[in-house]
Amino acid sequence: MSNNRRQRRHESDGFTCVNCRCQVSGESWGTRHRNHCPVCLFSRHVDETPGDRASVCRGPMAPIGIEVREPEKGGEWALLHRCVRCGAIKANRIAGDDSERALLALALRPLARPAFPLDDPRT
Ligand SMILES: [Zn+2]
Ligand SMILES: [Zn+2]
What we know:
It contains two helices and six strands. The chain is globular. 10% of the residues lie in helices and 25% in strands. The protein has a four-stranded antiparallel beta sheet, covered by helices on one side. Strands 1-2 form a two-stranded antiparallel ribbon. The chain has one domain. With 123 residues, the protein is mainly β. A hairpin with a 6-residue loop joins β1 and β2. The site of one zinc ion (ZN) has 8 residues, from loops.
């Protein structure tokens, strides 16, 4: 796909968040491929498959939701990101130091802002 594939392994050593500009360390417990900001959960479109850094898009990826994986085994959470630039949607494991408040706010977003009235007397 890409003709300027670069082998820059050190990109996982850290990055500056595209959204809130905080410095993010590449090392974190819970993941070897820290790819999103623990504060605002924004990511960046750098991978085609997790960890390969093969994408040429480099657009900011906004957190859009939570996916619960294997609920019968305790339900590991994954973050869904959508690329602001190209629209690609990716799932990423959450990291041990992600903001729990930001994760919960994301998970509760459809409940906090339902797309239909909850108190409709006709239902
Ligand atoms: Zn951030
Ligand atoms: Zn993209």
